[in-house]
Write a structure and sequence with these properties.
The complex is a heterodimer of chains A (406) and B (121). Chain A has 406 residues and is an all-alpha fold. Chain A is built from 20 helices and no strands. By secondary structure, chain B is α+β, with helices and mostly antiparallel strands. Chain B has one domain: Dimeric alpha+beta barrel (Alpha-Beta Plaits, 2-Layer Sandwich), CATH 3.30.70.1060. In chain B, strands 2-5-1-6 form a four-stranded antiparallel β-sheet, with helices on one face. In chain B, strands 3-4 form a two-stranded antiparallel sheet. In chain B, strand 3 and strand 4 form a beta hairpin. The relative contact order of chain B is 0.32. Classes of the chains: A mainly alpha (406), B alpha+beta (121). Chain A: InterPro entries: DUF6596, RNA_pol_sigma-70_dom, RNA_pol_sigma70_r2, RNA_pol_sigma70_r4_t2, RNA_pol_sigma_r2, RNA_pol_sigma_r3/r4-like, TPR-like_helical_dom_sf, WH-like_DNA-bd_sf.
Chain lengths: 406, 121
């Protein structure tokens, strides 16, 4: 497939699946139809020029394929009435939510509490973001057939149990938002994660996550965590252009060219964070956004307010006492009180079995040991981090640091 | 869409004795929940089951019908009743299932969709 076509497909997949699901009411059938339309497009567009409106073309063809299929099934089941109803423009009853967006409806379906939490993000990446099953399987470190089976099972449950395809009503939102915010956050994280997959695909994921986060703040304007999430994504994404070199190497925050940071995104992020904080109901996304703001608004790396960041991580650890948060706090403590203080926090963590296999913990330890001049221990820690199979971009960075020590 | 709600009291639930105020309160709670479902037009049928010790299981061995005293399997969580609901979608069914008083009394409700056109109606 040419990369140009692939990009169009990536971009249009989620929208097409969402629109066709609304028309047919069946997520699995919608996906099949969109797949068919894309195959057809591939044949036609490689032979001649693509149509002026590729998006409209894809959605029309996919919609027709899905309706053909429904008509065939309806005939088989002698349920002509059903097909007639579906073929009419009326379709199933329209959801009454304030924000009518097909993809938003789809994400609420994919994040339905009746689905196992682990499959929700996979289903969202597949149906909404158009990632292939193979790509998702690689992300979750499971085999492709295993992932395919989980996705099929989830889609079957959506169909068989009639999990609705709609944005929940206002009174249901408090229960439903956390799962959706989580998945939007994970979509962004996947896009943001260094060195996995192609850059264009990654950027698409970040853009889609921001778009969804924006819609969620419109859907639930009083939810400070929805605002917090949007602020977090904007403030992190503002650094996108400076995060990697042209050949895909990760640039550490301190070494990034801050002139490349997106001023507009930063300003918007700070504004949104302000609106969230004004509601006086702090939460993990707001705290993470506040940390991101400390970084993104510092004119130079040396200006970063590490004392404030360490405090924010401490508060965050009260909401989410995960070792990852403590590890980040250790880095902030090292910056504000010196590497020895940071190392003390980290060394308390290395006893935790859950994180011993986490390469970033060892990479952070290695960095602090290096700065304390404990070269042999630092080299050991770099080697431990490398042995834990970090993503390619980080592997290169760690190898370079290890070589400097030799 | 039809949903069968299977009720279990939970492994170590204490069932109030008939005649006690707790028993009356439980009955009242069920009556209120059942009436709400009936008024909303979602309730098709409901029932309480006699204990598992009253069950007989029917199987066949070749041509011969074989009866066994007892349920299919000794489950830790015995099914003690059911509701058959007609709802627009799973969300509606789950909302009603959550109103069954057993849920707030240590029990649980399993909500299972029925296949469309599964046998005579």
């Amino acid at each position: 497939m040419t990369s140009e076509l692939e990009l169009v497909f990536r971009r249009e997949w989620g929208r097409a699946v969402a629109v066709v699901t609304r028309v047919t009411g069946d997520l699995g059938a919608a996906e099949d139809a969109v797949q068919e339309a894309f195959t057809e497009a591939l044949e036609r567009w490689s032979a001649g020029p693509p149509p002026d409106e590729p998006r409209a073309w894809l959605i029309t063809v996919a919609r027709n394929r899905a309706l053909d299929q429904l008509r065939r099934e309806a005939r088989r089941n002698e349920k002509e009435g059903e097909a007639v109803r579906l073929l009419g423009e009326s379709g199933p009853p329209q959801p009454t939510g304030m924000v009518a967006d097909d993809r938003l409806r789809l994400v609420f379906t994919c994040c339905h509490p009746a689905l196992e939490p682990g499959v929700r993000i996979a289903l969202t990446l597949r149906t909404l973001c158009g990632l292939t099953t193979a790509e998702i399987a690689a992300m979750f470190l499971v085999s492709e057939p295993a992932m395919a089976q989980r996705l099929v099972r989830a889609k079957r449950k959506i169909r068989d149990a009639a999990i609705p395809y709609r944005v929940p009503e206002d009174h249901e939102l408090p229960d439903r938002m956390p799962a959706v915010l989580r998945v939007v956050y994970l979509v962004f994280t996947e896009g943001h994660r260094a060195g996995v997959g192609e850059r264009v695909v990654r950027d698409e994921l970040c853009d889609e996550a921001i778009r969804l986060a924006r819609l969620l703040t419109r859907l639930s304007p009083d939810d400070p965590e929805a605002l917090g999430l949007l602020a977090l994504l904007l403030l992190t994404d503002a650094r996108r252009a400076a995060r990697t070199t042209a050949d895909g190497r990760v640039v550490p925050l301190a070494e990034q060219d801050r002139a490349l940071w997106d001023r507009q995104r930063t300003d918007e992020g700070v504004r949104v964070l302000g609106a969230a904080v004004a509601r006086r109901r702090p939460g993990p996304y707001q705290l993470q956004a506040a940390i991101a703001a400390c970084h993104t608004t510092a004119p130079t790396a040396a200006d970063t307010d590490w004392t404030r960041i360490a405090e924010l991580y401490e508060t965050l650890a009260q909401h989410d006492p995960s070792p990852v948060i403590h590890a980040n706090r250790a880095v902030a403590v090292a910056k504000s009180q010196g590497p020895a203080a940071g190392l003390a926090v980290l060394d308390r963590l290395t006893a935790d079995r859950r994180v011993r296999g986490w390469h970033l913990l060892h990479a952070a330890r290695a960095d602090l040991l290096r700065r304390l001049g404990r070269r042999d221990e630092a080299a050991d820690a770099y080697r431990t981090a490398l042995a834990l199979d970090p993503p390619p971009a980080e592997r290169e960075f760690l190898t370079a640091r290890l070589d400097e020590l030799a | 869409m039809r949903y069968l709600c299977l009720l279990t009291k939970g492994a170590d639930a204490v069932v109030p004795e008939p005649g006690t105020p707790e028993f009356t309160a439980t009955l009242d709670a069920f009556e209120t929940a059942n009436r709400a479902m009936a008024d909303a037009g979602v309730l098709i049928e409901l029932g309480r089951l006699q204990s598992e010790s009253s069950a007989t299981t029917v199987r066949a061995s070749g041509e011969e019908t074989v009866l066994t005293d007892g349920p299919f399997a000794e489950l830790k969580e015995e099914v003690c009743g059911f509701y058959l609901l007609e709802c627009a979608d799973l969300d509606e069914a789950l909302r009603w299932a959550a109103t069954i008083p057993l849920v707030r009394a240590g029990g649980a409700v399993e909500v299972r969709p029925l296949m469309a056109q599964a046998g005579p109606r």
